[in-house]
Amino acid sequence: MSDDKAILKLQNGSDVRGVAVEGVEGEPVTLTLDYTNRIAAAFVKWLAAKENKPAAELKIAVGHDSRISAPALKQQVIKAIVGTGAQAYDCGLATTPAMFMSLVYEKTDFTGSMMITASHLPFNRNGLKFFTMEGGMEKADLTDMLKIAVDTDVIEADTDKAVKCDLIDLYAQDLCEKIRKGIKADDFYHPLAGLHIVVDAGNGAGGFFVEKVLGQLGAKTKGSQFLEPDGHFPNHIPNPEDKKAMEALRSAVIKNKADLGLIFDTDVDRMSAVLSDGREINRDALIAMMAAILAPDYPNSTIITDSVTSDKLTAFLEGELHLKHHRYMRGYKNVINECRRLNEKGEVSPLAIETSGHGALKENYYLDDGAYLAVKLLIAAAIAQKENKSLESLIEKLQPIYEEAEYRMNIKCEDFKAYGQDVLKTFEQRAKEKNYTVVTPSYEGVRLSFNGEVNGWALLRQSLHDPKMPLNVEGNGKGDCSKITAIMCDLLAGFDKLDMSTLEK
């Protein structure tokens, strides 16, 4: 593969992602040191043009999570920044949200920043995220930037010219102040005194939260685990969607009789939780909890979610909280941009959140920040304790999911996007011919609702980047999930390039 195609192929939505180290059979390195250098140099050139400033006037920060490839990639990024004439700032181990906030803080006031991370992906992967004051880079801008990288040579420069910046301390202090102001406790400096909080950092970059935030605010943190950065991720995948990860946190909460458990992904832009009774607060429950916390301050507002949320969540948001539920496309940038759009046209929308745990608040720069979600949750927990209430009571009327399944079907042809569109069109036509309820509007895929002999819903959509068609199914009663799955098999019959083997098991 030529250099230009190889570099362009590293784009994954609005991020760069690739294999950064050897060690997995059949997965050669694609995010090479040279490519990393050229991409970082292209970011400086792109940012200089955007800001209409010479590179010498740009202050660009770089941080990374705990991945084993981070030090080598950071060296290349700093070489590129210094070599193009900009001032480089080395923030060391950091979080993705902190790298954006480095542009906001007066003490740092950087022009742009880069985060070296691949979120929860396996140890051999890594990637790059890019920030300006407008937020994370848009997909189209990244495409333009990578085209610049194609025409950019590798740059050698003295990495000692980078200025060290202890960003995570500044970020943690900011989180502490937000919690103090939110709780307004009698003991202003220790507003979490009396609460027992367990954190599972999954050996990612989130371990700082225990000592630098919870410890500073007086919380008890016994039982917190996997706080040491380790890019091999020896205990579990640092991913709030991973069942093993959530079970590890749940066990720690129960064993230590904690009031609340928090879990972060590798770069801390996602969060989920576990309540004192072991109930997992992720996916729909996390969305419901955050909406319940925000509802008093934003009455009748709109909550933006991705497309795979449950009908039960809609019933809770609209029936219990008197909010509007707006299902949109998957992809954290998609829900964030839709939230921005609604607010700009005058429709109040305080929250854009995916079932993955990516949650962005309007009040927090539309930044998907797992630590900020934790801040809102901790404030609510402290206030509930002060009023002799439980955090659980906020979502006690959210009906639990009875049965659910997700199937990911491969599309076995080169032009998988066109084929997937044909599948969706035919699928919808067949559903209407059989008088199934097609939910409209649908911003992604085709959603069917079932009410009668079979109760629940199904959503068929195309993956954002891969040759796959995910199918989500939820049943409201015993056997409903398998009945709906059987209906899906019937509606998808005859598509010879759609691998339905997972669906038919």
TrEMBL record:
The answer to whether the entry has keyword Mitochondrion is no
Q: Which residues form a coiled coil?
A: none
Keywords of this protein's UniProt record, alphabetized?
Phosphoprotein
Does the keyword section mention Phosphoprotein?
yes
Xref: Gene3D superfamilies: Alpha-D-Glucose-1,6-Bisphosphate, subunit A, domain 3 (3.40.120.10), Alpha-D-phosphohexomutase, C-terminal domain (3.30.310.50)
For this chain, one GO molecular function annotation is: phosphomannomutase activity
Cofactor list:
Mg(2+)
Give the InterPro entries listed for this entry. A-D-PHexomutase_a/b/a-I, A-D-PHexomutase_a/b/a-I/II/III, A-D-PHexomutase_a/b/a-II, A-D-PHexomutase_a/b/a-III, Alpha-D-phosphohexomutase_SF, Phosphoglucosamine_mutase
A GO term (biological process) for this protein?
Answer: carbohydrate metabolic process
Q: Can you give the residue ranges of the Alpha-D-phosphohexomutase alpha/beta/alpha domain?
A: 13-146, 193-277, 283-398
Specify the domain of life of the species encoding this protein: Bacteria
Q: Which family does it belong to?
A: Belongs to the phosphohexose mutase family.
Q: What is this protein called?
A: Phosphomannomutase
